[in-house]
Amino acid sequence: MKTLHTMALAAATTLALLAAPAAQAQAQAQAPAKGARGEKPVKVTDADLRQLIESSFQSKGPATVEGVINQDATQKACSQYPDRLHVPAAVARKVEAAELKQVKYPADNNFLGDWKEGEKIAQNGRGMQFSDQVGGTNGANCYACHQLTKAEISFGNIGPSLYQYGKLRGNSPDVVKYTWGKIWDSNAYSACSNMPRFGHKGILTEQQIRDVMALLLDPASPVNQ
């Protein structure tokens, strides 16, 4: 979940889609600035940062100023808690309930696509940057945060390992529905999650989510070997 402060920092570098917010950078951005000669600290507000972004950057391609500064209700709520592990229980329940209502399941009840395509999506970290085409195909960059296969030697650990995801959990209707919902809108099950809301924000198409679902749940997928 990106706070306005974190998004200001991201905008100042690459406006990259999947840049993970850094708690230390958030704390520094929120801390009052001290004068060089001990003057009274100057408090930087969200309005100040908004004005700075609007005056310093311009929209290009899929990376728009509006996309950086305009927060929905969940982003605004989570912006109050830079450390997502300490979101108050009442706030977490409210966020999760609201986001769960927005999950869109396949109308044809077909949840699984092609795991081979899902692997390509998991490996692809491009999308929604200023150098990309508007309406272009985005990747999910899954390996930036998760281990998925035994063969993959380079992966992140911000998120849990997904190796043998389907083998360990099975493919019951409840598991399938949960997995779809988690990919579609991570905040539906973990308030203020760092994981992008791939479906809710239109990062991945419905077919792409089907393919990633197959990567996680198909017994033939390398994830489950």
UniProtKB/TrEMBL annotation:
Record GO terms (molecular function): electron transfer activity; heme binding; metal ion binding
NCBIfam families (alphabetical): thiosulf_SoxX
Matching Pfam families: Cytochrom_C
InterPro entries: Cyt_c-like_dom, Cyt_c-like_dom_sf, Thiosulf_SoxX, Thiosulf_SoxX_II
Gene3D superfamilies from the UniProt entry: Cytochrome c-like domain (1.10.760.10)
Name of the protein this chain belongs to: Sulfur oxidation c-type cytochrome SoxX
RNA-binding is among the record's keywords: no
SUPFAM superfamilies: Cytochrome c
Keywords: Heme, Iron, Metal-binding, Signal
Domain Cytochrome c: 113-220
Signal peptide: 1-25
